[in-house]
């Protein structure tokens, strides 16, 4: 089902979701054998997750590996139709597809949570130093959702948990406490959120959320999730 026009901009930033790739060893000539295997693994990670974050301890090594071989990564992925974007200030690598193939199309409430996380990142970051992690809890998300009056009540726990799982898959957040049903369960919001939701002014994110609120139930019922 086609996406509502006002939401299409969110999905371009998550391009790259999908198929794995087998890499010709000729392309990797001159690399150590162990590095060739790492190159293949990390290319497939990028195709599946779109982002690699330096702040994420689980992927920090992958980030530095990409930086070491950035020209090879960029060259190979460009042959597949992808663009490798590296923001060293944020410590984030992102894979995008200029032709918009292999997009992950979010459900309505996934898009809402994504925008809420972007807003909360901006608000929290103002209180922190550049090196501090942005940590929120589930109660913060509930409070922000209700304050925006997108619905009269909070989304159900399953919907919220699934939305957070999607954000985690794309390395936008990491869960610090397993039981997400608790209000005090914590999340880290990674700097990759700045590249996933690129707004010149945070007011634009609020404007998008206002469009969702005005759309109300009609948008919710019409929405579907697609993987191209």
Structure, described:
It is built from 9 helices and 8 strands. The chain has 228 residues and is an alpha+beta fold. The protein folds into 2 domains: 18-96; 104-227, Arc Repressor Mutant, subunit A (Orthogonal Bundle). The strands form 3 sheets. A 3-stranded antiparallel β-sheet has the order 1-3-2. Strands 5-7-6 form a 3-stranded antiparallel β-sheet. The protein has a two-stranded antiparallel ribbon with strand order 4-8. The radius of gyration is 18 Å and the shape is elongated. The model is unreliable at 1-13 and 217-228 (pLDDT under 50).
Briefly summarize what is shown.
The chain has 228 residues and is α+β, with helices and mostly antiparallel strands.
Order of helices and strands: HHEHHEEEHEHHEEHHE
Q: In order across it, which strands form the biggest sheet?
A: 1-3-2
Q: Specify the CATH class of the largest domain.
A: Mainly Alpha
Total domain count: 2
What is the typical, i.e. mean, pLDDT?
82
Please estimate the helix content: 40-55%
Beta fraction of the residues?
5-15%
Helices and strands in order:
Layout: H1 9-12, H2 33-49, E1 51-53, H3 60-68, H4 70-79, E2 83-87, E3 92-96, E4 104-105, H5 108-125, E5 134-137, H6 138-147, H7 157-169, E6 173-175, E7 186-189, H8 193-196, H9 202-222, E8 226-227
Antiparallel strand pairs: 1-3, 2-3, 4-8, 5-7, 6-7
Helix pairs in contact: 5-7, 5-9
Key traits:
Arc Repressor Mutant, subunit A, three-stranded antiparallel β-sheet, single chain, alpha+beta, disordered C terminus, 228 residues, 9 helices, elongated
């Amino acid at each position: 089902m086609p996406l509502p026009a006002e939401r299409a901009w969110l999905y371009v930033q998550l391009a790259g979701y999908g198929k794995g790739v087998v890499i010709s060893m000729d392309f990797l000539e001159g690399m150590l054998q162990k590095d060739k295997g790492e190159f293949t693994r990390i290319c497939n990670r990028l195709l599946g997750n779109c982002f690699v974050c330096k702040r994420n301890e689980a992927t920090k090594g992958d980030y530095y590996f990409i930086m070491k071989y950035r020209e090879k990564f960029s060259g190979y992925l460009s042959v597949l139709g992808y663009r490798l974007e590296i923001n060293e200030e944020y410590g984030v690598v992102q894979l995008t597809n200029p032709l918009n193939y292999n997009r992950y199309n979010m459900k309505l409430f996934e898009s809402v949570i994504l925008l809420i996380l972007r807003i909360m990142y901006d608000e929290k970051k103002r209180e922190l130093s550049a090196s501090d992690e942005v940590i929120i809890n589930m109660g913060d998300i509930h409070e922000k959702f209700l304050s925006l009056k997108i619905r009269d009540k909070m989304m159900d726990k399953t919907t919220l948990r699934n939305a957070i799982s999607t954000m985690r898959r794309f390395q936008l957040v990491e869960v610090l406490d397993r039981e997400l049903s608790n209000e005090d369960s914590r999340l880290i919001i990674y700097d990759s959120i700045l590249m996933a939701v690129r707004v010149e002014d945070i007011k634009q994110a609020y404007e998008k959320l206002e469009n969702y609120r005005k759309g109300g139930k009609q948008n919710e019922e019409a929405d579907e999730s697609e993987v191209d």
